[in-house]
Amino acid sequence: MLVAMTTTDWILDIVLVLIVFRQMREERLTARTVLLPLAIIGWAATTYLHHIPTAGNDLLLAGAFAAAGIVFGVFGGLLTRVRVVDGQVRIRASLGAAALWVASMGFRLGFAVWSSHPSGETHLAHFSAAHHITSAQAWVVALILMAFGEVVVRLGTIVVRGQLQLARARREGSGAPAPQTRPGAYV
């Protein structure tokens, strides 16, 4: 049903799983920190999304997977440590955020591998027929939208948390009443 993974697909998926190790090192939140993941998912969109099927329950499948990605993104963003040091927002993925990332990326990779093998392909075809999912492209769209939801919402959560921490640190520096957390503390 789904096309077998190419070497490029394998490399991309493995890099995305392993990127979590880079995120576990504290870094400054910059435009590059935000734009690089958005560029990667933009590339994935142009590579894998050729059309969005709307027949049967295809949109419901895409919506369910996108919602799952959004949930992963919210929790990934909340589990990422955010603090302000010397007026700059610093971020670091916690062990929980890293585990969540590996689980979600691993699920998508595992699903792609499973669905490209004869037994997985047969099970997926039966499931799709029973649930009115009309094409392999519906599964591709669902998996891509899950990744989009996770990446965009995770980044958005981190950026908002960083801006709130930065505003709090600036208030503390201006003599405004101090909030409960100390400057530089992770939240």
From TrEMBL:
Name under which the protein is recorded: DUF1453 domain-containing protein
Assigned keywords, A-Z: Membrane, Transmembrane, Transmembrane helix
Entry's transmembrane regions: 6-22, 34-53, 59-79, 91-116, 136-160
Lineage: Bacteria, Bacillati, Actinomycetota, Actinomycetes, Kitasatosporales
Keyword Transmembrane carried by entry: yes
